[in-house]
Each structure stands twice: as structure tokens, then as C-alpha cells.
Amino acid sequence: MRALAVLVGASLLLSAPAANPAGAEPRPQGAGLIHADDFESGGGEARRGSGFRWSGRAFVAPSTERARSGRRSLKFRFGDLGAKAVTEQSRAQLNFTFPAVPEVWLEWYAYYPDGTEGIPGVGAYEHGTDTPDNNKVLRIYADGHYSSAPEWGASSVAVANGAGGSSRLRLDYFPGNSHDNWLPKRRQEQPSYIDLRRDRGRWVQLRFYGRKATQGRADGVLRYWKDGRLMSESTTLALYDPTRTHDHFSAGYLYGAANSGFPRATAVYVDDFKMYRSDPGWR
Fold it and tell me: How far apart, in whole angstroms, are the C-alpha atoms of residue 111 and residue 124?
């Protein structure tokens, strides 16, 4: 099971940005944009000159079934519990690389079906009950150095061990002075991710920020926002590479291993992805 670091911090409600006209590239917010993608071109084109690249798609494809802006989004397809031994159950994943940076901001919108969409093979999203129950949402690391410091990311977990339905979100990280860690350990202190009563059947805004630590110090930072509200924050993480050979971030992936399984075949739709190398002004 992967690590996490979550300290619940103060929150401030922000308004979500307005949707873009059909076919328009998502409007940048602030300076330092590395990449913006509304997937209208058919599923992940590199922004000219940015050095960003999508790669290694597994059970991910452009779709017109749901879209926040324009006509298309990316569909991450997951099988039901009976298909857990099949690759698609655990590897609906999209990889990417980008120029090396010491800190990075990411934003995208995710749609979790409520079952009323009438899309063949896509049932209502619900966190499964199998253990371990951590389902990957995001991973950020140095290209070529997966599962080693200063990697960080996010996973969804069931509200309670062995319980299906709604889920919480934990921030995972590999510190430079030990093996993987997370704070707090208590699941009931982890913030909301997908609440079945409020979050299915709509576009949920997700934002993440990670900054590596100074060598030998615990001053790394991780933050998670949901719908513009700061949900989790940790500012005392030993998030550095003790070998000094890959002390940066330059690769990652969206979603991936769904260890909990799902009670029915479902999907997650992603639209209006953005990545920044400098602060876009989130609070």
C-alpha cells in the first residue's frame, strides 16, 4: 500500500472557473503554464514547446459520452469485481512526462457516473470493498525513478475499512529519510473525495500541488483542493532525494491501479487538464 501525507488545514471557498466555448483550449490561469488540454483533438496532444507528452495509455480513450467543455473528454474504463483479474480492472491509466521542476500544480475535472446517464457498460461509480482498498488517482515522480523519493501522489480509499460507496482522499509520498509515509494515519481524518450523495453525476474540480523539500530538511509541501476548497495540506515533509541524482519532478500518471475493485463496470471521465510550473494563484 502506498504512502500518504495529509494534514487537514484551513480552507477557503473559491468559485470554479467558467466552462470554455466548444473546441477552445482551456484558458490558462496565471503564469507558468506547462500544458493545457481539453482533449478536443482526440486525446492528448503536446502543447508546442512545452516539453509535455502524454504516453502509455491503458484502457483510456477519447469519448463523446461526457464532456465539460467542447464535445470530448478522456474516458478511464474500469471493469467490475468479476473482472478484477483482468488487466482493465487495475490499469486504467494515462502516463505523462514534462520538463523537470522542483514544484508543480495540477488541475483537472472528473465526472463520476451516477447510473442515470444511460451509457452502455458504464454503471454508477462506487468505491469497492476489496482490500487493500487504495485506488490510485495521481502519481508525480522523477522520470525513470518510480517508487522512490521524492515521489508523491493521491489515492482514494473507502470511508471505512471494508466499506463500499463514498471515498476519502489521502496524499501519498516517499520521503527522503525513510520508506513511504502518510499523515494522519486515522482514516476518519482524511478529507472527502467522492461523496455518493453529492459528487456523482457532475464535474468535480480537483487540484493538487507538490513542492520538493530542501536537501536534508522537512520543508516539502503537498496540498489538495476539491471544487476550489483547500481540503488537505502538509508543509513539513522530507520530500527530497537523498542520492541527489533525481531531486525533481518530471513524470507522472492519472488514475491507475484500482485495488478496491468495483461492484459494477464503470468509468471516470477527465476534462480540462492543466499543469503549471509556477503558482496560478490558488488559495
Answer: 11
